[in-house]
From TrEMBL:
Top-level taxon: Bacteria
Organism: Thalassospira lohafexi
Subunit structure: Part of the ribosomal stalk of the 50S ribosomal subunit. The N-terminus interacts with L11 and the large rRNA to form the base of the stalk. The C-terminus forms an elongated spine to which L12 dimers bind in a sequential fashion forming a multimeric L10(L12)X complex.
Coiled coil: none
Annotated GO biological process: translation
Cellular compartments per GO CC: ribonucleoprotein complex; ribosome
Sorted UniProt keywords: Ribonucleoprotein, Ribosomal protein, RNA-binding, rRNA-binding
UniProt function note: Forms part of the ribosomal stalk, playing a central role in the interaction of the ribosome with GTP-bound translation factors.
Family statement: Belongs to the universal ribosomal protein uL10 family.
Protein's UniProt name: Large ribosomal subunit protein uL10
GO molecular function: large ribosomal subunit rRNA binding
Amino acid sequence: MNRDEKQQFVAEMREVFEAAEGLVVTQYKGLTVAEITALRAQMRESGAGFKVTKNRLTRLALEGTKFAGLADYFTGPTAIGYSADPAAVAKVAAKFAKSNDKLVLVAGAIGEQVLNEQGIKALAELPSLDELRAKMVGMIQTPAQRIATLTSKPAGQIAQVLKAYADKGEAA
């Protein structure tokens, strides 16, 4: 890799770090190309990305970013998973690591908050951003439906009472 390629790699990595909200650092020693390709495809399906890194250049790209606290974890055969949804990248990485012991979860981060392996696994158990949004919408809609039901019932009951009086008056 010549100097220009290295500078381009650092710039690309810096863009990745600036755009991502969640990052997972992994070691992939022993994974085959097919397994890494499968992991990339799973990441892509969940809206995340997966990239094999060059440690020294990645540490340079980390300087001054919100993920700067992860610089010490870039040793050995390292790759990163990244996404705008921190739970999504953690879910895919944890699921893949569970089924394939060659992928090791080293560390992760949500913004400036550095997570260890247990933190990544805990994050993986959280619902995704879309699931949380759906739950919030459901919670907001439920009270509105109840209010509409409550306000429509008394009006209907009043109408029934008035109709009964009207029917009674006509009968008399």
